[in-house]
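JOB MANIFEST
job_type = single_chain_structure
chain_count = 1
residues = 342
[input]
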Amino acid sequence: MKRTYPAIACLILGMAHCALSQEGLSGYPFIVPADPRSFAMGESFTALPANPSALMYNPAGLAGLSGIHLSYSQRSQIGEYHSTLRSFNAAVVTPFGVFAAQFNHDYYGVLPITLSNDGLSPVSAYDYDIGIGYAVGLGRGFSIGGAAKYYESRGLTPDPLTGYALSSTSMPAKLYDIGLMYTFRRFHSQATVEDSLTIGMSYQNIGTGGNRNYPGNHVPELNMQEQMPQYFRTGLSYALKVVPRASGEVSPFEAVVSGEYRSAQNLGPDRWGLGMEFTIDEILSLRAGGLFQNSAEPGHMRYGAGVRLPFRSLGFDLALQGAVIPWYSLYAFSIDIQSGLP
């Protein structure tokens, strides 16, 4: 009977992982963003052009970037369920288009479970994904993009054959995204204002599922197929900018309103995301948004802010950003660098 406890503990850990993923708080690192800007704006970035974090939503959003972008983001949840997602992003503009890369590492912490007669032993779990993407503008407001991702889940699990020994687990999957975006410009007739409306759509996580295997284990019930969640996302965004009075000055005010519908093709509920952002003097940005699903469970608001520090004499800008969902005790922050400014 003692040797069944580790197996039961493993199943409980797996169920907890899936439950968190369904709630949108944790789970697959290529779904829930660490980027505070998109996080605060309800994850509604499918139709946001010139977006360094576009690999999370719509790779076509990479088009329109300038220079080189580097960023580190971290999203953490404190309380009963603890997880930390760390994300590294890079994007480079070339004459042939925009190339981007991303690495996400989601750590779920160490949980004590009974593994031996000595009492509790720690079991840790984490997963990660590596992604690359490409986007190009086709002219007349159109852009297209694609991304490829490799996802793997690793952890420690008891081996029922030995009773209390630990062995690694692995679940690799290869996934692909495609996306389109179109931008309409100059709705406003006044020369002091520039505005645009963007429509975007993407299909995410086309490809193989994963096998959650337990090496050295001969209990078939613990080896299982795990399907990767696939999404069809459609969105709109509207951007307005007050034109600077003179060349070399900054815009005194900018606003962005975004919304999207994320349709789950195989797993989880559909979700709506809404967000808004107001920027003053291209330095201070204030954000708010919400993520809602088509069920009786209400969505929860999230809030964020960002500060952009220009170092134009050195050829780069530095941005510090943060976001929080108070209801879930979940927060995110990032450090972003853009060089090669126009």
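[summary]
The longest helix spans residues 4-23.
The helical segments are 4-23, 36-40.
exit_status = 0
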